[in-house]
Amino acid sequence: MLYYSTRKNRKATGVSFAAAALTGLAPDGGLYVPETLPPYSPGVRNSLGSMTFQDIAFETIKPYVTPDIPDAVLGDLVQDAYSFDAPLLHVGDRLVLELFHGPTAAFKDFGARFMARAFAYLRRGEDKALHILVATSGDTGGAVAHGFYGVDGVKVTVLYPKGQVTPLQERQIAGLGGNVSALAVEGSFDDCQRLVKTAFNNEDLKKRLVLSSANSINVARLIPQAVYYAAAAGKAFTGTIDALKTGEAVGKFRAVEKQPITFCVPSGNFGNLTAGLYALEMGAPIRGFIAATNVNKSIPDYLETGYYEARFSKATISNAMDVGSPSNFERLTAHWFSLKELRRMVRGVSVSDDNTRKTIAEVHKTTGYFLDPHTAVGWRGADQVYAEHNVPTGPLAVLATAHPAKFAETVQPLTGPIPIPPSLSKAIERKPNAQTIPAEISALLEALS
Ligand SMILES: *Cc1c(COP(=O)(O)O)cnc(C)c1O
Predict the structure, then answer these.
(1) How far apart are CA 267 and CA 107, in angstroms?
(2) Nearest atom of ligand 1 to the alpha carbon of 402
(3) Atom 8 (ligand 1): residue with closest C-alpha?
(4) Which of 82, 5, 59, 32 is nearest to 282 (CA)?
């Protein structure tokens, strides 16, 4: 598979998976996109409902990494990366796809764990360590830190805005040590991102270190996220829902066999949604998507008006989605040129903090299920879309992108105590150990020396 930049003359910029993954961003500043989205073989497509998650991961990722990662290596890699489940459950009147059973209790573990293992393989035998620089507003940093923790030949530096991540997120980012360093930047998330970008363009630093990025623009994080969509769509299509959680799905959202599913995706930078579209294009039985954002709604507005405007981000209680200028917009338009085509597959919707809080309280009251603020945006967004539009029936699944205990400060006052999963109790016990730096490039360069 070749990868092209979203910007310049496409045919002139084709690179391998290894190059696209290890450099992150194309030299012209664009994002890498695969040249095609290869369809599943009929055999695989018809078996998605019965295959193991690891086998679906293998079949989904394989065409994108050939020939750089041989089949046998990929097989071991997905076994090792995906040692946890992505259950599809009935909750109240719909399905929920729980993506928070990885080590940092957010869906970003799926991408980060694959990326870390892929990088370790692609860099085998090199004597200089690969240095990952990543800016985070909270969840990415923890997932990347855990993904790469203890991986040979890789060093990680995570930049986060000091005092603006939750205490738990800070422990996930800065509590590991080893090959993971944390920098608490006296500034905003935008400052962190600016520092990372400036560092990547610093000729001196590029001579000293082999640098790479690990945010959601990296294809190595994006592609593995297509896997859980295909797995869940297969399960819904064959009627093999994992377990009854809190009541049977009823009415219009019923999982009727042989019906393609609609996913509602809580969205910020739109990497997750892009991966879902990859799964649809590859032939997984998916009807379409609802892209639910908080008030940072550049893309829902684009879908409605046809006019795209990058904005400054506004702070909300679903802070991992506070993105005013979603990077993956460029990928969406590179793959699906026409607005009409995109509209056919995706409906946009935006949810206020007020309605997010109301939803967390209501869903807990009626079903006993705890939604984190991001998942609650998805739940409510689906309600808003179904109320306004005449949407076809068929199963609806909301992606649960984080465990509610990760955002206990917001959720608990609305629901009462949340049971804490073991991965998070372990993180709570760690002591964060970060170096504080001013939001200046000289300070970052010094910290990296
Ligand atoms: C990152 C994140 C999102 C947004 O995902 P994108 O791929 O950036 O759209 C949603 N929910 C949670 C919990 C996240 O950590």
Answers:
(1) 12
(2) 13
(3) 269
(4) 59
Mean pLDDT of the chain: 92
CA of 267 relative to ligand 1 center, distance in Å: 6
CA distances from 48 to 120, 128, 230 (A): 29, 41, 7
**Domain boundary assignment for the chain:** 84-106+221-420
**Which residues approach ligand 1 with their CB closer than 6 A?**
106, 108, 139, 216, 266-272, 320-321, 374, 401-402
How does pLDDT run across 166-180, given as a tens digit for each residue?
889 999 999 999 999
- Which residue, by CA, sits nearest to atom 14 of ligand 1? 320
Active site residue 62: no
Residue 42 Cα to ligand 1 midpoint, Å, equals 31
Check 108, 155, 235, 297 and give the catalytic one: 108
Q: Identify the pLDDT of residue 403.
A: 96
Angle at which helices 226-238 and 53-65 cross, to 10°? 130
Q: Which strands form 180-186's sheet, in the order they lie side by side?
A: 210-213, 130-135, 154-161, 180-186, 435-438
pLDDT digits (tens, 9 = 90+) for 102-154: 999 999 999 999 999 999 999 999 989 999 999 998 788 999 999 999 998 89
Region class of 281: left (phi > 0), else alpha (psi between -120 and 50), else beta = alpha
Indicate the CATH number of 84-106+221-420 among 1.10.275.10, 3.50.50.60, 3.10.300.10, 3.40.50.1100. Answer: 3.40.50.1100
Q: 158 C-alpha vs ligand 1 centroid, how far in Å?
A: 17
Instruction: Show the tokens assigned to 314.
Output: 């506004």
Nearest CA to ligand 1 atom 12: 401
Instruction: Give the pLDDT score at 240.
Output: 77
Residue with token string 């609806």: 396
Q: CA quadruple 163, 169, 171, 172: dihedral positive or negative?
A: negative
In sequence order, what are the residues at sequence separation of 6 or more whose Cβ sits closer than 8 angstroms to the Cβ of residue 94? Answer: 249, 253, 379, 382, 395, 396, 397, 398
51's CB contacts (< 8 A; 6+ apart) are 44, 59, 231, 234
Q: Where are the alpha helices (DSSP H) in 48-166?
A: 53-65, 71-81, 108-122, 139-148
